[in-house]
Amino acid sequence: MTVNMAVKEEVTIDGLKQSKSLVGDSVVYIAFMLVGNGCGWFVANSLWQTLANVPEVTQDGRMFGKVTLIVGIVGLVVALFYVLSLARGAMPIRIGQYLALSLITLSIAVFGMLALFWDAGAPQYPVFILATVLGSAVANATFFIVFPLIATFYGGWLIAPVRAGTDVSTLVTSLLAEVQNPTGTKNLFPMAVLYCVYMALSACGLVAWLVILKFRVGLREGAVVEEQEDQKQEELPRGQDQQPQGQGHAEVQDSGRLEAEDCLGELRRRRREQPGESTNTASVGEVVVASGVEVGGDLTLLGKVQYWLRELACPQSLIGPVICACLSQVLQWALVNTITEIGSLMTDPAGCSGASGRETYRIALTSS
């Protein structure tokens, strides 16, 4: 009897621990999902919904084409800045955290600007165009900054809720825009109210991120130490940060040197294995690695470029999925979205500006 009682008590305790762990993981999941919702494509998605609900802004499709062009250009510019930043090495955790905070704050500011001045300067709508630029920059920077930050310094499973949050923002904007204009021809409440709701939801992401930073939610053990070291460096008076920094980052320098030497050795080995090429390539100078360590070598210009772009390397097993993902995004944003609007409006027997076509487009956009 005593043994059975002890076993039952142990099972009960284990069950309580599992329940608490499940609740805790759920709270963490929701917090990071709010972060993904707070930045990502939230602003950009809200602008697409505005084009569907306010025909005056669309201007017979001209604004739609202009917005699509802006989104593409901003995406390429942000990607270029990211590639250039690879030459500086890995981003410190504190800088990544501050940049993520800035992205969410910028989203809130853009929603506030739209709530007040979204229709200013009609029919050119300069505020709407500016919001498109900023919203696209936030969306692309989220994938280049926030996702690597979470994957590197936080639990790997936390990528899922952040990515889910970006999808939730798409769902939220579609559903709320559908509620605002279910027929596609008449808004039941002003756009300013809708933007204020978006701003409040984005503010929830800001609060969630501040809580994550305050209590170091989801941080890996090594990341906690690095974050504390960065914080100490920030708190030191100017002029006194050189000595601690040199001591505190000695191991990082050593590891950076080893990584550089391994990379250089691999590149030289591959070059020697290539048939028809001489192994006595003329020296073209020194290679400066991201951590500031100079490594002598005889790499060609192509070798240097390959080294600087090493963080973009993709395993052969993932080349297929990466290509498919790229094609799906290109087809969705460059082709399907455009065809959706034009095709929906062409379904109206009365003309391309008829009420039936607008309703079809509204339903199609929400369904997507």
TrEMBL record:
The residues the entry assigns to the signal sequence are none
Task: Give the keywords, sorted.
Answer: Membrane, Transmembrane, Transmembrane helix
Entries under InterPro entries matching the protein:
MFS_trans_sf (IPR036259)
Q: Does the keyword Transmembrane apply?
A: yes
Transmembrane segment boundaries: 26-44, 64-86, 98-118, 124-150, 157-177, 189-212
**Compositionally skewed regions (Low complexity) per UniProt:** 239-248
Q: Where is this region: Disordered?
A: 228-253
Task: Tell me yes or no: is Membrane among this UniProt entry's keywords.
Answer: yes
What this protein is called in its record is Nodulin-like domain-containing protein
- Look up and give the organism this protein is from: Alexandrium catenella (Red tide dinoflagellate)
